[in-house]
Fold this sequence. Notes:
Elements: E1 2-5, H1 10-24, E2 33-39, H2 41-54, E3 60-67, H3 73-77, E4 80-86, E5 95-102, H4 109-113, E6 123-126, E7 146-149, H5 157-166, E8 172-174, H6 175-178, H7 181-192, E9 198-205, H8 210-223, E10 227-231, E11 237-244, E12 249-252, E13 258-263, E14 269-272, H9 278-286, H10 293-301, H11 303-313, H12 326-330
Parallel strand pairs: 2-3, 2-6, 3-5, 6-7, 7-8, 9-10
Antiparallel strand pairs: 1-4, 4-5, 9-11, 11-12, 12-13, 13-14
Helix pairs in contact: 2-9, 8-10
Amino acid sequence: MKTDLTDTTSSKINKALVLGRRAIGTPAVGMVLTLVIVTDEENAYDALKAANDASREHPSRTLVVIKRVSRSPRDRAKARLDAEVRLGADASTGETVVLRLYGEVVDHAQSVVLPLLLPDAPVVVWWPVNAPADPANDPLGALAQRRVTDTYAAEQPIHELTGRADNYTPGDTDLAWTRITPWRSMLAAALDQVVCEVTSAEVEGEEFNPSVELLAMWLADRLKVPVRRATSGGPGLTSVRMESTSGPIVLDRPDGSLATLSIQGQPDRAVALKRRETSELIAEELRRLDPDDTYASALRYGLDRLDEEASVTAPDPVEEAPVADPAAATAPAPAPTKKAPAKKAAAK
């Protein structure tokens, strides 16, 4: 069931939700949280599709906030709110409200969203693109217990990671971190199989991929060893190599689907390590609403510290001996000169 409301208010949207539930015969509200998606028109479809797929595991009320750009000064001065209410089959297992904000109301999105939040239910805010520099102090982010961003969608992902560390607040998380959950689980399981001490590590992946940096910082933070990053053609993360006292431990995934785990003294094993869809990432983040201390510790380790420790342990370049003059090298060596025998002293 779908209801379109033009130039409406939050109270009218709430009435449309109640009438819609009665019309489809499900008056009871069974949602466990409110998911607020803040995006633009270009990315709204993909974000909403991912949220609907995730709602099969987490029935929720999904509020999609789309801030429309007004072209003329007159349009920017006029506030308007359009809404699209979806229930039943059109909203998967929950409820969906698409909010389009125009004019001055764009700067006051929290006043529109607040009356539509489920009472006594946690709130999660997700920015698929264009996340604020400080999500916790954003007007919409201040309403939430968890705030989800995606550094991979930023124009400068590596620079964005530094900003996330500077402005981290308990409850912040990032889908770039969620993407490496299978890698972290597999590497931890590999270290449980051998008795050894890791001395160094190398993480290989696409250039400017924040997941590569986060995995490297996590390894350096947990193992207290220098970690080097290497660049590959992808897709995503491709390899992790840990040098240990019992031999190398390598997790290699060249095709983005199937990985090979190699441990010294054991046969190679094929493990499933497929790149996951956005809906799976969101579903994982909605399973826990408490602060992720492991993410905070890895993020605060810092890219600068990672670079410093990697440069300190890097081998010094081998200095080549100076090359002699080619002409001198090919010229024949001068013949040795014979010394004249010293004269004997005259006998007295």
